[in-house]
Amino acid sequence: MISVRDGQNRILTQITRSTSPEIIALADALGRVLVDDARAPFDVPPTDNSAVDGYAIGSADIPTGGPRELSVVANLPAGAVLGDVLERGQAVRIMTGAPMPAGADTVYPQEIVERRGDHVRVGAIERGANVRYRGEDVAAGAVVVPRGSVLRPQELGLLASLGHTQVAVAQRPRIALLSTGDEVAEPGTPRKPGQIYDANRFTLRGLVEQCGGHVTDLGIVPDDREILRARLLDASRVADIVITSGGVSVGDYDLVKAVLAEVGGIEFWQVAMQPGRPMAVGRIGAAHFFGLPGNPVASTLTFVLFVRPALFKLAGRRRIFPETWQARTLEPLRKKTGRREFKRGVLQYASGSWEVRTTGPQGSGILSSMVAGNCFIVLEEDRADVAAGEMVTVEPFTCSW
Ligand code: AMP
Ligand code: MG
Question: Is 195's C-beta closer than 6 angstroms to any atom of ligand 1?
Fold first, then answer.
């Protein structure tokens, strides 16, 4: 038996480089992984400018006693630049975002002044008020988005504000997916007695796509040695990662083991976790291989624990593991020490704290528990039974980090 963490480490050390870069339009780059640090070519904002609609003045004109009249000598919309230098006793009408005129260092919001003809009456104000300074958002040369970042909408906007139209991103890792089992039928085809429709290939496709991978769907393979061998070899030629589900257990028709022993360098792992069945990890040719268990919850969980970090590393992502949180369990939870257990939970904020309950029956074939839930409850190896009210680790179902 190996621990979850040992398994993850062994997998990550196998992945020594990421996919090659490609240059794509910024507008198409949502969710992709940046290959190089993005630096600011200039200060943002490029000049000191007004944060409000109002009147720019030199601070020497801020009155200390009663109000003071200043003459309004120019009108400055956003995008316009004043050529003249502001003199004592003068003010400039200025709009939000317009560059500060030379000689001005403070802006009165229009709401707090009285405008009369070409004069404006002003009172006390803090020196430097309502000015946004050159470079206060981003200084020229600074790294604004580090390499390995996933481009979210806000990164796209920031890169656009720096004038970029294209970005170098890692190519999407190519993932070949196939299901195994004589009992597994393709949805949309007739289901013979004793058959079940394939769930795993659809869940796994969704997971891969959510993680930024590109899926090649190789369908369902019957429990037949020759067909399985041929399909796995095909898969290894078109993919960076090959994923199967089912057939890695100890049943009479669990052929994945036998076939892999012939075509690849594979280890069979018994991981100290629950749900957990044996899984297979290794290589076929140049492709990384993951033989996941057949039970839908187990295949999802083993994907999240072992395949996702591999896929993220291959995709050049800086962050490989998700953030976890602490919440108070509303129910007692049965737990065996010495292994890591994962329950499907419903996390919610109620009466002033984060609370979590399970989704009900936790059998590893119960896919509806994943649908009812919004997080995994993670019970670490050293924990025993948990009483209601204790704090537990939760990992929300999300890929947006
Ligand atoms: P196995 O590891 O092949 O013995 O499969 C374990 C359990 O998972 C069995 O009940 C299978 O019928 C089920 N199973 C295997 N593959 C799938 C699949 N693609 N979709 C849903 N259930 C599956
Ligand atoms: Mg099977």
Answer: no
Tell me which ligand sits closest to the C-alpha of residue 364: 1
| pLDDT tens-digit series, residues 354-369 | 999 999 988 888 888 8
Query: Phi and psi at residue 150, in whole multiples of 5°?
Result: -85, 135
The 3-state DSSP composition of the chain as helix, strand, coil percent (nearest 5) reads 20, 35, 45
Global pTM reads 0.89
Q: With H, G, I as helix, E, B as strand and everything else as coil, classify residue 23.
A: strand
Instruction: Give me the mean pLDDT over the 78-104 stretch.
Output: 93
φ, ψ dihedrals at 205, nearest 5° = -60, -45
Q: Are 107 and 55 in contact (CB under 8 A)?
A: yes
Angstrom CA distances, 49 to 103, 125, 131, 159, stand at 13, 17, 6, 21
Query: 34 is written with which tokens?
Result: 């940046």
Q: How many whole angstroms from 14 Cα to the centroid of ligand 2?
A: 27
* Residue 328 near residue 310 (C-beta atoms within 8 A): no
112-144 burial string, b = 16+ CB within 10 Å, else e? ebeeeeeebebeebeeebbbbebbeebeeeeeb
